[in-house]
Amino acid sequence: MKNILENRTWRYATKKFDHTKKVSDHDLELLLEATRLSASSYGLQPYHIFVITDQETKEKLRPASWGQSQITDASHIIVFANVTDFGEELVDDYLENVSTTRNIPEEGLKGYGDFMKSKLLDLPAQTKSAWTSRQVYIALGNLMQAAAELKIDTCPMEGIENEVYNEILGLTDKNLNTAVVLAVGYRSEKDETQHYSKVRKTREELFSHI
């Protein structure tokens, strides 16, 4: 318990990264696997995640990120892109995965599949997109906490021009939309933000026990 709270106190939204320090392949795989194992509604994971290390691509994305230096200085840029629209294939692909992973005949999953489809397929397109984007944030939180456990710094970023990201990464044709970006790497000694006390609501303000 002590380490859990210490790691969450240690992490902050890093404003300046040390561009000379890179996350190792081993640690990156741990972060990505922690993200892959993240919860999502119905287990559907209606998103795709892009891991960007190419410096030229990062340079292109920086102007679309309000010029923030995290984009070019961080070791990795993780782009979380939600599925903008979907049909039966989202559920069918998941059920096929369940059948293979758990060695269950797909016929035995039809009832669950029909239930999911009844709840999701008739939603308006805008509602579908809003729902898939919310699933992204569950994965984002899991990646950030896993990084804190490894003493790897992160900075979640919504200060971006989503449509420009989509254009640069070719997402629109893939039925994807940039929802949020996470810079991953190691803090610079020059980042004064790391010395600030963490500001949060008190327990009394935040929690109600019923």
Automatic annotation (TrEMBL):
Keywords: Flavoprotein, FMN, NADP, Oxidoreductase. One of its GO terms (molecular function) is oxidoreductase activity. It comes from the Bacteria. The keyword Transcription does not apply. Its EC number is 1.-.-.-. It is an enzyme of class 1 (oxidoreductase). Signal peptide: none annotated. InterPro entries: NfsB-like (IPR033878), Nitroreductase (IPR029479), Nitroreductase-like (IPR000415). Residues 10-186 form the Nitroreductase domain. Pfam families: Nitroreductase. CDD domains: NfsB-like. SUPFAM superfamilies: FMN-dependent nitroreductase-like (SSF55469). Its cofactor is FMN. The keyword Membrane does not apply. Belongs to the nitroreductase family. This is NAD(P)H nitroreductase. It comes from Flagellimonas maritima.
